Every structure is written in C-alpha cells, then in structure tokens.
Amino acid sequence: MTDARQIPHAFLIEQFADFLALERGASPNTVAAYRRDLAHLVEYLATRRIHAPAGASSPVLRDFIFHLKDLGLAATSIRRHISAVRTYFRFLVGEGHVVRDPSERLTSPKRWRTLPAVLTVEEVARLVGAPNTDDPLAWRDRAILEFGYATGARVSEITGVALKDILFDEGLVRIFGKGSKERIVPVGRRALGAVALYSREIRPRLEKGKGQGRLFLNARGTPLSRVGAWGIIRRCAKTAGITKRVTPHTLRHTFATHLL
Fold first, then answer.
1. How far apart are CA 190 and CA 171, in angstroms?
2. In angstroms, rounded to a whole number, what is the distance separating the alpha carbons of residues 94 and 166?
3. Which among 216, 221, 211 is positioned nearest to 198, based on CA atoms?
4. Distance from CA of residue 172 to its chain's centroid?
5. Could you tell me if residue 212 is inside a domain?
C-alpha cells in the first residue's frame, strides 16, 4: 500500500477524476461537480492542518459536514458533498491509498436532530476574550466574535457586511440576508466599540485596495471568507477551553437564547 500521508490531495483527486471519466464514464459536468465538492473538503481539512487523506478520520469528516451546514448550504447540496466524499474514499481504499474508509458512517442531513449548542454568559466572555491582543489580527477576531454574538448574524452575513453598512452614530448595522433582503439590526455598545477599534486601527493596515469595501478582511487584505470566519471562531473556542462544539451558528443560537 502507498503511504497516503505523503501523497497530497491534489494528486489523488486528479487520479479520482480520471477514474470517474475513464472507468465510470461520468460526464464532464459530473466530474466537475465532484471536483468542486472535494475542493471544499480539501479547503476545510487545511484549516485542520490535514493535507493528505490519512488524516481525515471519521470525526473530522463529520465535522466537515456540520461545517457545510453552518455555512448555510441546502440539504441537497450537503447530500451531494457526502456522496462525493464517500465515492472518493471508496476509490482511495480500492487503490490502496488508505486502509479504512472514514466516510462509511457520514450521516445524511435528513437524520440530524440535535440542536446547536448554547454558550453560557461566562463562556461567551471567555470566547471573546480568547484572541491574544499582542497580535494585531486578534482585534479583528475579537470584533468578529463580539459582532456575531451581538447581532445574531449568519456567518455569510458577517463576512458580507461592508464598512459603510456600520452606522456608528446610530449604533446600527445594515445586514443583507438571504435573497439580498435588507434588515437594520442594533449593535450593542461593547460590540460597536470592538468594531470601531478594529475599523480605526487595524483594518487600514490590512486594506491594500483589494478589500471591496468589506468590513472584515484577511491578512492578505481581501474579504474574509466564510471558511476563514469559521476557523477564527473554532480556534478561539479552543483557546478559551470551551469543550462544546462552537460554530458560527452557535453564536447565532446563543444570541437568540440569551434574548429570551
């Protein structure tokens, strides 16, 4: 058996694409769809510092599927991703690249029944205090956490907010949700202060003319992606020692619960 720890995903996905086209007779559109879905997997695994199939355990793949759900993908899209992942790993087992198939027990969205975790007020405080402010980007991370908890915004809405959408004098933010529907949401004083500090002190350092007016930017000066925001929240939860599974939707659910 080849050592899958030494073979990067890109090479194996190319082999898999050839297998689909030549041996299964899949259409170019089908092969392209598999490539896109597996590219999402590879992007997620990179946030877990997993760069080859051997590191993709069953719990990691399960987290990937929950990650897709947190990003707001439809159940049909998630089921397609599951199918692509299962087919890919069956191929890897058949070719001798991995010994066991970690995708065997991936659960279809229609069977999910668990509610998102809810953080306590004390856990929220630990979470937003987790970024190490010796690092300038930590002020951005804290602003994201405070903003997400204060507004209950979806991760796609957080990353989609433009700097001009923050109405600092009124303490409001203009958010564009699904279907580009606009809503005006109040921002708490603490969250507004965190966003103001980041906007004034940190964002100008990141802006390199590629920010497209977005509020939250990555280290390269381009708009922060949903995957990037997800990674920040996950990393801060780990730093804070929170054992619950914390995702962008956790902040949204916690916001709604604390309003009750």
1. 10
2. 53
3. 216
4. 25
5. yes
